[in-house]
Design goal:
single chain, alpha+beta, two-stranded antiparallel sheet, 5 helices
């Protein structure tokens, strides 16, 4: 399997992210203007939100290969995970996380850029991988996520 350049990885992520919106060309136009594009949740993914200051330590408990896209905004002290459409029930009682309803818009920069203080900590890569809500819930638990013994 050939390795992709950063530019190719970012373009694949941007294409996937723009296509999550009903009007992908408008998303690209907004990005070309160096501003954030509002992309609604509910078609491809939902958004789980946490405070950046308390959520980042949980993020690093999750192995990189198990993380879907994660967006951060330092000025707003916010961190957003893209999670599967059925994640709301699994994450409903997780302290420190709020799952936004379908139709809620996440203002997104392009994959490889920081815009208005927002940047992807884990970039969309075009694969559609999302963070498993079970893994995310476990990371927010007191002991953090632990790899099952048979997976080691």
């Amino acid at each position: 399997m050939a390795l992709l350049t950063f530019t190719q990885q970012y373009e694949a992520g941007d294409t996937w992210l723009a296509n999550c919106c009903p009007h992908p060309n408008l998303v690209r136009d907004v990005w070309d203007a160096k501003t954030l594009a509002p992309i609604p949740s509910g078609e491809e993914w939902l958004v789980a939100e946490a405070r950046l200051t308390s959520g980042y330590p949980k993020l690093v408990r999750i192995r990189a290969e198990q993380r879907g896209p994660v967006l951060a905004d330092q000025l707003m002290d916010a961190l957003w995970w893209l999670v599967p459409l059925d994640a709301a029930e699994e994450l409903a009682d997780v302290r420190g996380l709020v799952v936004k309803p379908a139709g809620w818009c996440l203002d997104c920069p392009p994959t490889g850029q920081q815009v208005e203080g927002r940047m992807w900590i884990t970039h969309p890569d075009g694969s559609g991988q999302l963070t498993d809500p079970v893994v995310l819930a476990a990371a927010f638990g007191p002991g953090g996520y632990r790899v099952p013994a048979e997976a080691s």
